[in-house]
Amino acid sequence: xxxxxxxxxxxxxxxxxxxxxxxxxxxxxxxxxxxxxxxxxxxxxxxxxxxxxxxxxxxxxxxxxxxxxxxxxxxxxxxxxxxxxxxxxxxxxxxxxxxxxxxxxxxxxxxxxxxxxxxx
Length: 120
Prior knowledge:
The chain has a domain at 58-120. It has 120 residues and is mainly α. The protein is built from 3 helices and no strands. It has helices spanning 4-27, 34-37, 45-116. InterPro entries: PPI1-4. Belongs to the plant Proton pump-interactor protein family. It is a single-pass membrane protein. Residues 21-71 are annotated as: Disordered. It is found in: Cell membrane; Endoplasmic reticulum membrane.
């Protein structure tokens, strides 16, 4: 024997399910085909387009990175050339000062010799 409370609960569930089925049957309206409602393409073409777009974005990023690397390289090379030019200029100035000092010393020596009437 089944207790009376279990029978009542079972009856309530059965009624509930029957009511839900009846309501669903009454409210069903003709629906549009699923292909029209779906915004995503049905064929694999859309997936290919998305993949191509991603690849295009990746190539753009790669090109930008390559451009930046080249730009940094050229800036670094320009800095090195500038530094080398400055070093060469300093060396030339130093050599010119040494020549000038040497010439001044020779002139000084010759002048001293002349004053003392010594042959240089």
